Amino acid sequence: MEYRELIASDLLKIKAVFLRPDEPFTWASGIKSPIYCDNRLTLTAPEVRTHVEEGLAETVRKYYPEAEVLMGTSTAGIAHAAITGHILGMPMGYVRSSNKDHGRQNRIEGKLEPGQKVVVIEDLISTGGSVIDVVEALREAGACVLGIASIFTYGMKKGLERLEAANVKNVSLTDFDEIVAVAAKQGYIRPEDAERLIAFRNDPSDESWIGGAK
After folding, report:
1. Which residue in 108, 149, 151, 189 is a FRET match for 62, CA 20 to 30 A apart?
2. φ/ψ (deg, to 5) at 37
3. Helices 157-165 and 129-140: crossing angle, nearest 10°?
4. Alpha helices of the chain — where are they, by DSSP H?
5. pLDDT band at 142 (very low <50, low <70, confident <90, very high)
């Protein structure tokens, strides 16, 4: 099955991805963005959740056939790793954003043997920093990280360059360009807004896309 258009349509339908080019959102970094993404909403939409988890499972089968363990990112990737692991009959765990401050002070939760082949399950990739940090933690623990399976990626230059520099492969179910194309086709945005949105993706720090025709 081709998941790019299906998942893009699903995310727009449940407003897990919300496009607002005329009233941009402000990210924590201060960047103005025409898009807001909250893939946690897929967990409360059973039909969409099924599409997502089946898509992630198919991604692991197709692109990472040697995978032995799935590791979710904390916290958004945990549920997706668990459900995908259930579909595939594979063990899963997750990686904390930092070590626990009590007990065994684990950062990696779940059994992980040195040399095991791991796929990281992530919900969203923007600049790539957080998921690369997860990959590095797994590598330090002795895992062989095959790559990432994610729901959505912005496809931003900075993120792509970071993943390449860290030698990390990512396969996403859908991406920013597909979201824009489907949104224009289905009337979520005006056709003339598509170019503005792509301009944002090309360079988020350049706000010249703001203030287009209203």
Report:
1. 108
2. -130, 125
3. 10
4. 3-13, 46-63, 76-88, 129-140, 157-165, 176-186, 193-202
5. very high
- Joined tokens for residue 115: 């040399």
What residue type is 86 in one-letter code? H
Q: Per-residue confidence at 211, pLDDT binned at 50, 70, 90?
A: confident
**In this structure, how many other beta carbons lie within 10 angstroms of the beta carbon of residue 140?**
10
Q: What mean pLDDT comes out for the span 130-149?
A: 96
Share of the chain above pLDDT 70, in %: 94
What gap in Å lies between CA 67 and CA 186, rounded to an integer?
37
Whole-model pTM: value is: 0.93
Q: Is the pLDDT of residue 214 over 50?
A: no
Q: Residue 109 has what DSSP assignment?
A: E
For residue 36, what is the enclosing H or E element? Answer: strand 35-37
Q: Tell me, what DSSP letter sits at residue 28?
A: T
Report residue 83 as tokens: 């459900």
- 79 to 40, 44, 47: CA distances (angstroms): 9, 11, 16
Nearest Cα residue to 118 out of 169, 192, 177, 188:
169
Q: Does residue 68 contact residue 110 with C-beta atoms inside 8 Å?
A: no
